[in-house]
Amino acid sequence: MRVKICGVTRPGDARRAAKLGAWAVGMIFVPETPRFLSIARARRVRAAIPKGVLAVGVFRDPAREELLKVVRELRLDAVQIYGKVPTGLRVPAFIAGRSKLGPLDYAFLEPERTDADRRAGRGPSERAQRAAWKASAAKKKSRVRVILAGGLTPENAAEAAAAAKPWALDVSSGVESRPGVKSAALLRAFFAAASR
Fold first, then answer.
1. Which domain CATH number covers 129?
2. By the 8 A CB rule, do 195 and 1 touch?
3. Single pTM value for the model
């Protein structure tokens, strides 16, 4: 099972995720979120992501020029977009809540969360998770590349992969000792669970 480690704020965490087999590493460019990176800090994380692992920038309602500037400056391989998606992007995108996708795009499926949970970096309820897993399994039949996220942990990764049958799993807070700080032990446990 492919794994994307998101919300990476430290170069060492990016290197560790890649060494464990991450398919992608995500950096967040949404202000007022616990894992927000300035361009200066993101440069250091980006430098630690080896060739062969996708470097992904995460944005919310980005202005087209602002997004493309970050993509160029950091040599991002893909973008993950919440909210309004700018037109004319020529970079693979992980897109939440959109039915029409381009040939390079991925459907990003995340259970519903409250605004307070999102700001605090908390995951969704178990009920919302199971609804998303069911939706992911349904999309599998249409050959959409679904990336499943939201509330994943080493304890539920294997169950989520089996129930949802996604193309990839995306985890952030579920492998952290505190917001933005990935735990080596939890990362190892997550990769082990995802590969079952």
1. 3.20.20.70
2. yes
3. 0.87
